[in-house]
Input
Amino acid sequence: MEMRILGRLTAADALPLYSWVAIGGAVVTILGFLAIIGTITWLGKWRYVWTEWLTSLDHKRIGILYVMLALVMLLRGFVDAIMMRAQQAFALNSGGYLPPEHFDQIFSSHGTIMVFFMAMPFLTGLINIIVPQQIGARDVAFPFMNSVSLWLTAAGAGLVLISLVVGRFSTAGWTGYPPYSGAGYNPGVGVDYWIWAIQVSGIGSTLSGINFIVTILKRRAPGMKLMRMPLFCWTTLASSILMVFAFPALTVTTALLALDRIFDMHFFTNTDGGNLMNYINLFWIWGHPEVYILILPAFGIYSGVVSTFAAKRLFGYKSLVYATMAIALLSFTVWLHHFFTMGASAGVNAFFGVATMVIAVPTGVKVFDWLMTLFRGRITFHPSMLWTLGFIVTFTIGGMTGVLLALPPADYLMHNSTFLVAHFHNMLIPGALFGYLAGYMYWFPKAFGFTLDERWGKRAFWCWISGFYLAFMPLYMLGFMGMARRMERYDVAAWQPPLVIAALGAAVILAGIACLVIQLIASIRTRERRRDLTGDPWDGRTLEWLTASPPAPYNFAVLPQVRDIDALHEMKRRGAVYERPERYEDILLPRNTGAGVLIGGFAFVFGFSAVWHIWWAAAAALLALLAAAAARSFCDRTEFRLSASEIQQIEERRLRQLAGEEAL
Amino acid sequence: MSIAGKDTAVLPEADVYEQRALGFWLYLMSDAIIFALLFATYLVMVGNTAGGPGGGDLFSLSHTFGETLLLLTSSLTFGLASVALDSGNRRQLLGWLAVTFALGLGFVAMELREFHGLIALGAGPERSGFLSAFFTLVGTHGLHVSAGLVFILVMMAQVAVKGLSRPVASRLERLGLFWHFLDIVWIGIFSAVYLPGILQ
Output
């Protein structure tokens, strides 16, 4: 075998010369990267970016970086989506504008990006910013590991992005089913990019899950019993438990596929004793809990939004908690419904079909709890409330089509059709993304100290929701008309009109995204008159609204005493809020470190080298990563002491601000 | 916001060690899922020999017995290291860690010899689904033991350089959890892989 210093990396294979559209994508990716680098350099802000953000272990800053990553990847994933809709709108009896090989990359990267690099960082970011504040903590349990998780996720996202410039991405769909994803049918680097991107980021997610569980179990403020935690903390706990126990399944699945591809093993091959069905089993043992990892935090956000903007205590708090934990448990019992047609016996299919329908029950409980909270509330139609209302209606429709698909005989007819595509978008767009956007608009002032423009927020909502219905209701119809998913071209004339409507829907969603961008820019420009000086712009009920906006590095100068589910609301009623404590004490906070960035960087080099079989570089990167981790473990004095006098200065300034506010 | 006093580094508060222990337990549970799935995969594929050799043809009881003896004894010596840690005896601690390291290294060496022998026989991981699953399950355990060996070296260095400070002691406790965990996994491998193979 010929040894090559750059593995299988050659200029001819690496450059995206196979399609003009791909070259355009590569150019946009490079220009975007250069624009970010150039802007920071032009502003002379590298030192600020490095010391205050990239190396920060403050959970709020790490959370903001996660959300920024998610928003960038949302744009990239959406470009994939609108390209697919455009292709299918044109591709009746013709090749459209995308060659098949390129179209296949686009649907693969769309799913991969939206699940792993949009939704996961978005929810992890919101959790990071908010959960410690909601439980009255000063940081997460493991601030350094938090930074490592962030940079591993960023490294994975970087691998997906660079696949557009150097080489190609997978054509095997976001699920990467063998044998098509095996070396025999897919010898290039595409599937390897997919494998290493999710392998690297998946480890980050497992670590995040561990971090959040320990934070919630061990770092609650005095009096914050488990059954007094805001719902978002509960759903975070459930979601984190799922991350810790489900992500190992993804790690195993992709690792075994990598062994098949690299070392010619036979886990999932057609020959020599491979069993490709085992892949599908293992993948969905992770994949179904993953759906709830994405959705449960959004449920928590909706619960907070509903209660704040209806100015009422959450209805059925306990039932919401039990429903959350029931969903978390049941999510491990339904994975087989993703492959009813694989040929399991009728009894097995029936069991998983029934289990799937059972999971709709706790979800239904939640919907009624939210409705009852709204009932006779004084509702404020803040954009976050609109996302919530849109979610309740749309998600319920998606739930009904889900119960339909849970019937194995019906699934035999509709599996792998656009009906399925419509169904899971109908769950995940309202069930996850709308929730994250509601959280983004709800908590933005907490993170940055000024509110977002509500008019543009409402416009974004109306574009998104009408665009959603336009884009996906036709896909339900097309599923019934027999259209399979992932078609690059077709010859059934009757499919074209609904596909054109779906493309129009994507265009309306594009308008929604434009509204989001305008909202952000307009709000930053007018930030001086949108300042949130109280830290509590919505008359909030939970502890994150007790801190300043943005919060001091320690969140709480004195840990709050919690007496109720709506802890802050109860304090306000008692008149015991914003009191000047008798004295301040020193607080220990994590010191910044660049080790997280370094570890993420090594992971990126490792992934890239593994994709291209540059084994010496992969080994070197792995060794460097281990060395960095070992060196970091020698560092015991990881915190710094913020003195009581400094805290007093910060707090006095805030109390004066609050007093001034009241005088107005 | 720049904060004065950011340069004076201090140890975290004492309750952090309990949190680290809980976090490590969670990591172990997550790792246990990885092994559980590899065990399940092995058991599904144990018959998929594709006309190649099966466990009965390849496994040697005496070799596996030797590996088991090394690894179980290393768990005992790690226990003795923990006792030395509790009594604050640094030299004894380093000694027992060194013995544990040597036994673990012996285990990895024996495993590599077994793997080498199988590959030389033409029974490498690319031969059949069964052998892919075997090499992956046992190899993953071996990789964990190797990582544990590195971990032991790092901790010996920390004990030597830093002494038995609270952070070092807490790391040693977690290393102990990891090491004993690998023992339990090995007992699973012995019972689910080698024993049924040999008794075939």
Notes: Residues 1-293 of chain A form a domain with the Cytochrome C Oxidase; Chain A fold (CATH 1.20.210.10). DSSP finds 20 helices and two strands in chain A. Chain A has a mean pLDDT of 95. The longest helix of chain A spans residues 100-134.
